[in-house]
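TL;DR need structure tokens for one chain.
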Amino acid sequence: METAKLKKGYSPVGRALLILAGVAGIWDTAFVLTRSSVNLGVLMPAVLGAPLLVIGLFLPLFKKLCAKSRVFRALAFLVSLAYALFGLLFAVTTGLILANSTEPEDGADAVIVLGSGIRGNTPTLTLRYRLDAALDYLERNPGCTAVVSGGQGPGESVSEASVMRSWLISRGIPEERIIVEDRSLSTEENFMFSSGLIRDDIGPDAKIVFATTRFHVFRSERTARSLGIEAEGIPAKGVWYITPNDYLRECAAIVSYFLTGRI
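>> reply
TL;DR here they are.
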């Protein structure tokens, strides 16, 4: 009789989905770790997936405990609420990202390329895609100046800006069209330091755009605006196998920036 009640208490399909979701999250983290450095976005699928896997594997036991204990029922409710809240936040932030990733019009005086890591003297694939987007804009707008923005991060032997400068020159952009900003270590500093150089070199009324990965455009635009800088983003494509991780990390970043008043 007890076994029959337990079977009616949960769906085998639902249990299988929980297990699959948990395994998928852990596998994603393990896979991306072989191709990327450790960051919140890389770890989040495993952090979200591990509890689902445990719940799926031991669902009959959890159902039995919930039937006998108010504490377990309350815990199950809180876990469900946490996942529902995160799902809602992820849907909202992803919607904001997609709604704010349109191409800016031509005619800008300067395009800031936001740094995104280097390996030795070579830009990472993410940074190359940003440089590709900036290069396309520069070729369509011969009067536009490139501002390569990125300092020397931990484990880097040179600044990101110097690598970006060399990359653009190798693609035919003249040195005189490139301004190097090699002090910044964050998006805020990218905009603060770059806007100062643009103001000194071009003028205070210069029209500015910036190139960054699509998922990063919304937060970058709001960050620039919070600093008094009006700039539209050129959405560069992302690396396909880390796209879910990028959007998960960006969800957390947008919520954090909003709660701390940074956007």
